[in-house]
Amino acid sequence: MELWDAYDEDLNKIKNMALIRGERIPNGIFHLVCDIIVKHTDESYLLMQRDSRKNFGGMWEATAGGSALQNETPLQCAIRELREETGIYAGDLIEVGRVIDYSNNSIYVEFLCITNCDKDSVTLQPGETVAYKWVSKDELVAMKKDELVTERMQKFIEELQV
User: Fold this and answer.
1) In this model, does residue 8 exceed pLDDT 90?
2) 58 contacts 44 by C-beta, under 8 angstroms
3) Which of 51, 64, 92, 140 is most buried, with most CB under 10 Å away?
4) Which pTM value belongs to this model?
């Protein structure tokens, strides 16, 4: 059983309340999700292909990320998810935005990781990802809706001006 902290829409933790993954989240209560956009120092972006057994299987994601576990800060969650999903170790992530998704009772905290890692050293997470590739910003922004899990990431990268 995976436990999450409960938050209000201003990302204030609600004391004495825990959420359980898979159970309905009450209206007005949110859980924390962290997304990490990985940009290499050569200006390319990391894309991860989702396992076919997952929602949106076979599609590409412009981020690593996932739900924060109970008692994790957004930064701790981002560091853990980045390491689990890509094998990239980074502690100097930059928070670049927050988005509230009322339909999923989620608050997304977006981070940017700028890395000079060996581009061939990215690791896949069994059951989560099956491939990766590095693409230019123009290639990423030009990807079709049926290729990329979320257009939100394309817009986000365009807005970053990085």
Assistant:
1) yes
2) no
3) 64
4) 0.87
